[in-house]
Amino acid sequence: MKARQQGTSRDLVVDDPEARGFYHDSGYGRITDDGLSLSPVEARHLDRRGKIDVEEDAASPDPAVYAVYSDLRERGFYLQHRSGDSHVERYPRGVHPSDGEATRVEVTDEGGEVDVSEPAVYAVFDREHDVTYFDVREWTPEGGTAKPESSYRARETGGGYVVEDAGELFNSCFYGAPLEDEGGMEITDEETRYLYDVDVLDVDEPPRETRETRVYGDLRDSGMCPRTGFKFGTAFRVYDTVTDASDLPHSGYLVEPVDTPVSARDLSRYVRLAHGVRKTMVFALPDDGYVAVERETP
Questions:
Q1: Which sequence positions are flagged as catalytic?
Q2: CB atoms closer than 10 angstroms to residue 152
Q3: Residue 136 is assigned to a structural domain of this protein
């Protein structure tokens, strides 16, 4: 069967009624009055499988989109692609396009960017022609860490803020770091600003509000316990619940405030880092929402 260019459109048409079987059997293209309409990506895939012949001067598919399309087809998924789209529609394995709802798989290459503010599956085509998939989904912070029941006074030092009597702040709520030689406890700018904002801490000159203090405060308001993520290369490591500072659970998340879009390389770096320490990578977005990002194996 011959696939020919359809006028000025990038679509290709196989004007053989039997070509409709490619849609009915495997979900390729769209049914037309004459046969089957295909995007260049779909046509190239069928051509390389020896199912059709594509005319020599037909529009060429985008290499990254074609690589993702071929990879997912080989994994057994029904797909749909329309000419000019930088994404493919992926249906649940075994579900025909006429019978189910698709997941949008956005495609970029390793030098591209990812708009993580839009939950979706992102496929990154790298320079070795491999494809890596990332699942970006909305994330809502929720935990059960206790809130302080007493009030405290902090004093500013050359390097931060100190609370003389730590009490429950450290033991039950896991704020700050005890000062063994001097007594009391040092607290970070984010901790100081939050405790000041919720009227737990009296301090003459609180730290100014920043994006980090806002993210920290939102996580604390949600019952989660954020601590510095410096050892992991992020703003915060975050616990769901802390009840005793001497018996800490595993921190399940790394949280980093980001602007969007994020470079594909930074996305890969953060997710790989989090996976290596058995945590989920969470990005705090400029509009105060969150997304969790993990590697996906289709």
A1: 239, 250, 279
A2: 20
A3: no
